[in-house]
Each structure stands twice: as C-alpha cells, then as structure tokens.
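Box 4.2: Ligand-aware structure prediction
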Amino acid sequence: MSYLAKNYNRRKISFIKGKGSFLYSKDKKKYLDFLSGIAVNTLGHSHPTLLKALNTQAKKVWHVSNSFEIPEGELLAKNLAKKTFADKVIFVNSGAEANEAAIKIARRHFYSIGKPNKNRILCIKNSFHGRTLANIFASGSKKMTEGFGPKVSGFDHFKFGDLNSLKKKINKNTAALFFETAMGESGIKVHSNKFLREVKKICNKKKILLILDEVQCGIGRSGKFFAFEYSNVKPDIVPIAKGIGGGFPIGAVLMTKKVAKCMIPGTHGSTYGGNPLAMMVGNAVLSEIYKKGFLANVRKNSKYFLFELEKIRKNYPKVIKEVRGVGLLIGLQLNVNLGKFINSLTQNRLLTIRAAENVVRILPPLNVKKNEINLALKIIRKVCKEFDKK
Ligand SMILES: *Cc1c(COP(=O)(O)O)cnc(C)c1O
C-alpha cells in the first residue's frame, strides 16, 4: 500500500544510483537513461562539476530571503544575460512558475504603459505549459482542464504551424503570443524558422510581445543555447526551467529591459526562487554548457542519431511512422502501441518517455557519448524487429 496519491502512472522500477548516462536500479539492473528526468539531467547523473558546486555551496549557505542581496543569483543572471537576448532575469523554481511569471510580465507591461485591456494571451491549441491553473487553460487541452473549472479566462488558441489561424485570432486586446519554440510534451513538433520569422513580423506590426517557452527545448537541448537562435528571431520573454538546474529545481524568466521595467518591487516574488544553493548549481551547469565545442558536439551527435534513426524507420516503416526533432529533443512517431513499445525499450534497459501523438520521446543527456547512442540504436533496432513481426 502506498501513501502517495495516484496522479502518476509509475513504472515499477526504483533507482539507487546514477552515473553519467546510466541509472542503476534497486534490483541491480543498469539502464541507459535517455529521458534524463524529462530533459532535466542536462549533464547526466552525478556530474563532478555539479557535485562540487552543490557541496561547496551547501557548506556556506543554502537559503536566504530575497529581501537580501544574493550574489550567487546576480552571477547566474549575468551568466544567462551575457550569452542571450536577455537584459533581466527573475528566478523561480519550476517551469510552470516561470510560465505564470511570463504571463504576468506581459500583462503588467501593457498595464504599465496605459493599455490594461491589452491582456489576452494567444497560445497553441493542445500545447503544454505546466500544470498550474493558468497554464492548463493556456494549453487549450480538454484532457488537462477537465474537472478543473471554472475556466481561467484570457487565453485564445491557434493551430500549430498555421499562420492563418494565428492571424485570425489576433485582436486589439492581444498582449502576447505564447508557445514553445519546439514542442516537447505535445509530440516533438518543431516550428520552422520561416514560421518564427513570420510570427515576429506580425508581433512587430501589431505591437504584441513574443513569449517563447524554452522550458524543455532550451539550455542546449536543441543544439543551440536557445532553439529560437536557429531562426535569429528575438523574443521579449523566455521562461526556462528543466535543463538549467541539471536536476536541482530552478526556473527563470528571461526578458528584455523594455518589459522588465514594469516589474517593480511587490509585483512578483517567490520564497525559494533564486536561493544560493540553486543558483550555484545553475552556474555550474552553465560553466559546462558554455565550454567551447559543447553545443557543436550536441549538434553533431544529433545529426548522427537522427540519421541512424531514419535508417531504422526505413527498415521498419510498419513500426515507426516518422522521426522528428531538433538537437537531442527527438521523437519517434509510432504506428504501433506506444505504451507497449516503451515497455519493451525499458525491458531492454533503455529509458524513454511518451509524448502526445503516439510519440516516443528520446532525451539523452547533452554530454551523451557516441557509444551510448550506438547502444540505444541497437536496442531500438531490436525492439522494432520484435514489433515488426507482430
Ligand atoms: C515541463 C514543462 C513545463 C512545466 O514545468 P514544471 O517544472 O513541471 O512546472 C512547462 N513548459 C514546458 C514546455 C515544459 O516542457
């Protein structure tokens, strides 16, 4: 009997140790971890740089209130700003919280310039932005909102990749466009550079803010620090979380100084957000990702992985319908039962996770080694062969 509520479907495995790309279970099995706690363990498990940062800071001070200066957070904000579009940062603890803050900032910006009615947020139908009340209604997903009414108003929706549907939904009260640069949970769907550039043009013309949720695709996951860098489009607000903590809960909102101006004392806060322990772990994650060649290596591994997966798809078209993704945010859309396929991968010691649209999500650590990718490919081939016979 478990005292945990049943809000997750848990696999019957528990882990006692992690090292690099591998997890070790209580029953002494070794698993290749290609889901990375859902794009969280950017540098794999027990990375020496992260261990050192955590242990060093733990001996100094863990937590102080945001009513004091926190130099560790100043440093992380500076580290984020110097390599990105951002001028200012607010730290929180999770992706959902970062998204909520992003929505607040967009609305407050227009309020502060005397346009309080410009407050509607335009999102993608059946998207994912986290599980808080505002975010589930931002998702426009029936499944996620069922039973959680009354509806949080203020969100409109357009169809993924459909510029006409987007244009139709814009009106004078639209404050911001809000979507993931590359969608994770919703089935690994990557916006084209052309689409993003068109969106930016519309934003400029209609004076609408662009919020790009990079909670999953950000922090190197796409092969660039941010996925939107491929398009050269500059957003106004970017919520991040998952990868930035490498396993320590951190969220943040990055923004331009234009929109940051409205966030005066008292407008937003978070007790834990930006505490010294979290901040030093975040700084350690960035010190690795910023190393020369790190992101180029992600892109190289991605190219190899996607190419080899495509070969498998060609051999087993009855099993795999499509290979898609960017960087190490990879999806296999299946023609077979998703749950059974993932179970079979797990039984063969490869950990992956599901996404919408019958997609297996593959999210290796960003420092994954080529021989580990080869091991994953071998397992995927084996499982495809099994399912091809069925
Ligand atoms: C995971 C995720 C969130 C929610 O993050 P939490 O830390 O679970 O609150 C929001 N947006 C995207 C794109 C995500 O992938």
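In the box above, the bound molecule is pyridoxal-5'-phosphate. The domain at 49-289 is CATH 3.40.640.10 (Aspartate Aminotransferase; domain 2).
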